[in-house]
Amino acid sequence: MIHTDLLDDYIINQRQIRLQKKSHRVNSFLSNIAKRINLRLQSLTILLACVSLISFMSCSSDDTDEIDKRKEFTQIVENRSAKDLLNDLYVGSDGDIQSLARMLNVTPSSIERLRKGETEPTDKFDKRIKEVAIYYYLHDRSYRQLRACLKDARWYEYLIWFVIDNPGWFIFDFILSLCISLIIAEEFPLPAILWGIMFIVYIVAAVLYFCVTPAKMDDKYIDTINPTIEVLI
Question: pTM surpassing 0.85?
């Protein structure tokens, strides 16, 4: 009986020892994994910190350049007359005096007199002209961006401008999407339907872009000056 008890105690002790060894191995394994994860997290944190620092420095540099450029352009604009600035905008608009008048919220006849030097702008309108001119110069003299900023562009013009500015990409994407839609149309008709809708939208946009002309502004100051905008020289 005593030998049996001793044998049972021995077996129990051996099991406990094996369990302790297994537990130790598991703990060591988990500890190694935790250390590796911790090292990778530290490396990732350092990498992200470096990327963030570089991005911040780049953004700071870009912001500084933008501020310097704005200061320089502001000085240039301040030294120029409203007549010269309006003529620059007139050239940028390709002679579209109606568009220019809509953006500046004045009548076309006033713009014509001001840019020809027949009248001078009021102080308030002179400031407005210079604000618009600064934006125009800061954006590489892009009249399209100026129109978009001043809410003079219509939805279909954005679509056509994209096609004009990216003809190669647009044609490639158009043909590729058409081919994919036709290949999978039997099992998945939705892409083909969406492609057809997109095609119709671009056709409508092209028709509107080339055929629709905005209505001319009602000009009440053809024979007289607008006292809130201009003064006689």
Answer: no
